[in-house]
Amino acid sequence: MNVIRLYNKPECPFCWKVRLAIRELGLDAEIIDYQTPSRQAEWQTFSPGKTVPVLRHGDLAIYESDVILEYLQEITGRLLPESLADRIQARLVHQYSDTRIGAALREVIFEKRDKTPAQWDTERIAAGTEAFNRALPFLAQQLGEQDFFAGRHSLPECALTARFGLAEAYGVEIPEEFANLRAWFERMKARPSFALTAPPAVPLSR
Amino acid sequence: MNVIRLYNKPECPFCWKVRLAIRELGLDAEIIDYQTPSRQAEWQTFSPGKTVPVLRHGDLAIYESDVILEYLQEITGRLLPESLADRIQARLVHQYSDTRIGAALREVIFEKRDKTPAQWDTERIAAGTEAFNRALPFLAQQLGEQDFFAGRHSLPECALTARFGLAEAYGVEIPEEFANLRAWFERMKARPSFALTAPPAVPLSR
User: ipTM of this predicted complex?
Assistant: First the structure.
């Protein structure tokens, strides 16, 4: 089998999600920084929005993170849970992470990134943090007392670990009232895949 | 097998996409208007954003259109093409329709909807139309001279038929230079599924 190549931006949550999936599946993959000048043509040709992640495997070029995850499921059969109900639940929570959680955190991250604290628009940061907090009760209810969102480590774990990891790095904590989400995140950080895939520029804790 | 129930907004492109998939698969489904007062609790309980489409089947409640399509594939095995490469391509073009094509048309539709022509912001409409036109070369290149985007009628046909159908209803035409896309759309409109699923408020041609 040809080697999997992932064109990657370390601090991109969609890339981190894919890195976690690759690592949890134990796949061999070449992780290539998207800015490497000699490698840009290999991925930019295929990505209509010139975005990463892009995964190349043999003749395939896959330029959407959720399609990359469906592909990893297709070739391994181990990324999604066994039962149909769990597979649907895994996809739904994954989507929720990409949309609701992602949109809230984007406000905080885009405001704090590349600015000094004195330049921050604190109202924008507060609004993003509040949107993040408002999105959590649904997740807490979906998780309940389970170890994982859908039977076992799957799409939600890859997606939300990356989101919560970036949130923490940018000073957004999961409030204490969501004890099950906090405990879940601690369990995810304790897995070897976390330190092996976390972006170097993002501190693992503050 | 329990009957499939689709909670539906006729003019929503995500709902139309799902209706096309259901009809093309020949599935029995109860299509329920999302505004029906006596039926709202049946779907609003499950949809965290209170959005449609929501598909209910047995104990499952699925509130994201792309997860609904993956579910229809899971239970029928006939919504996605046979080959792995085609299945990935089908998902990629489907995503492109939901994001790039959808975002462009939203500008036009939201501006024209519920307003008289005298109230229209013509600059916003022009910008949306231009974004739509800029998104088409990639699609035209993906389609080439094929009958379908990925081997056979699949996700891209469901997604793009709904988008192009709404575009046409709102006065946005596929420019003549994209002859293959125009011919593809005419073929899609000629299928029985089109008239059977088109929203009644949207004229089939202008």
Answer: 0.94
Q: Is B38 exposed, middle or buried (0-12, 13-18, 19+ CB in 10 A)?
A: exposed
Q: Does B59 touch chain A (CB under 8 A)?
A: yes
CA distance B70 to B91: 10
Which residue in the block uniquely carries the two structure tokens 């070029």? A61
Side chain identity at A42, as an amino acid letter? E
Q: How far apart are the first and last CA of chain B?
A: 41
Q: In which element (H, E) is residue B126 found? A: helix B122-143
pLDDT per residue as tens digits for the range B62-74? 999 999 999 999 9
Q: Which residues of chain B does A59 touch, with a Cβ-Cβ cutoff of 8 Å?
A: 85
Task: Find the CB nearest A88 among B60, B92, B95.
Answer: B60
**CA-to-CA distance for A85 and B74, rounded, in angstroms?**
11
* Predicted structure pTM score: 0.95
Scanning every residue of chain A, which has its alpha carbon at the shortest distance from the alpha carbon of B69?
A88
Q: Is A48 on the interface with B (CB under 8 A)?
A: yes
